[in-house]
Amino acid sequence: MQPQVITLNVNGRTHQVALNPNATLLQTLRDLGYTDVKNGCEKGDCGACAVLLNGEAVNSCLVLAWQAEGAEIITNAGLGTMDHPHPLQEAFADAGAAQCGYCTPGMIISAKALLDSNPHPSEEEVRVALSGNLCRCTGYGQIIEAVQMAAERMEETRCKGQDAGGER
Q1: What is the DSSP letter of 33?
Q2: Which of the residues 83, 85, 106, 155 could staple to 89 if both were Cys, CB 3.0 to 4.6 A apart?
Q3: 20-64 pLDDT per residue, tens
Q4: Tally of CB atoms within 10 A around 52
Q5: What structural domains and CATH numbers belong to the chain?
Q6: Which whole-number Å values give the CA distances from 112 to 3, 21, 27, 43, 83, in the listed order?
Q7: d(CA 93, CA 56)
Q8: Does the pLDDT value for residue 166 go beyond 90?
Q9: Pair type for strands 13-19 and 56-59
Q10: Dihedral sign, CA of 87, 91, 93, 99?
Q11: Given CA atoms 31, 35, 40, 46 in this order, what sign does their dihedral have?
């Protein structure tokens, strides 16, 4: 197959990429250096490769890269920085929800999509939203606690009329 050149917008940066039409978004993001997008199963079962695609959490291993052309792609690294972490990133650290850390970026992306559409989720709604993300290190208790902690912090920030932190 002939490589084709596409334009991807990742974390606010534009990339011109020559790729084979069957290249997945996961492979392409990793090739571009976005190592926060983890390669777990390449079957859509684990959620480690989750990214926001126009605000929706998707498993990047199930998306062909050319399908994301022109879309806004956000990875965990695009949510915040070490100096200005997103409230979800901060809450995961504060709640000890990271454990080995491999699943954490995908968990945070799925939680971000949830909180964007439902700023006050119940514990059950958090569990459902994260049901596509597998973690072998925890019983999910600290992860759910972190998402609810972030939701509370983001609400407090909204009530104060401030930016919710992070870059996105």
Answers
A1: T
A2: 85
A3: 999 999 999 999 999 999 999 999 999 999 999 999 999 999 999
A4: 23
A5: 4-77 (3.10.20.30), 87-159 (1.10.150.120)
A6: 33, 29, 22, 22, 19
A7: 24
A8: no
A9: unpaired
A10: negative
A11: negative
